[in-house]
Amino acid sequence: MVLKKNEVLEDLERDNLFIIQNHDKYCFAIDSVLLSDFVDIRKGTKVVELCSGCGVISILTNAKKNPESIIGFELDFDLWDMSCRSLKYNNIQNIKFINDNISNVFKYVGCEKFDCIISNPPYYKKPKNSLNINKKNLIAKYEIETNLEKILEISSKLLKDKGSLFLSFPCERLQEVLKLAYEYKLISKQVNFVYSKNKKSPNFMLIKFVKGAKLGVKISFQQI
Hints:
The protein is of the alpha/beta class. It contains six helices and ten strands. An eight-stranded mixed β-sheet has the order 5-4-3-6-7-9-8-10, with helices on both faces. A two-stranded antiparallel sheet has the order 1-2. It has one domain: Rossmann fold, CATH 3.40.50. Helix 1 runs parallel beside helix 2. The radius of gyration is 17 Å and the shape is globular. The protein starts with 6 loop residues before the first strand and ends with a strand.
């Protein structure tokens, strides 16, 4: 395998897995690693990841949870290309990454066929002025090509009844997340607030939704 300009091969410190990163592009952070830990699925589950980025969540989830298959969708060509080459380097056969907008997901997979959706989507609303924002972060961090409601709508259509969505998102948007999710029959069952020791408020949250579930949610806190 040949690395492209400015790319590096980083050790994921699990099962001798490595991933290609380009620090001139958007790189994964701790939220991706913790989301892969948070995913709670049975062995043999079929999974879809929306906004799969460099592929780290799918690769780690595959190693930790042993699903039957994972299909990831990523719009950014460079990130998608790196994720595909990471699969090849690690000789992973049961994950596939597709380079397309998540709005087109139904061209590739059917409705109500999946038990699990994972997403670490853009966190922030579309900025009024993007001129001062690093271009590499625009699509990955801001709701330009997709948004929270689209993620929830697509997830609800993909999931079987009682299927689960695992989402990472900023805490300040909690009310918005819960309101929109409920409109798409996604009921929050677990919310894990992640915080740093030196911060007074959580950094972000991990949420498990279950399609068509009864109301009732467990709250937990995790220090990093």
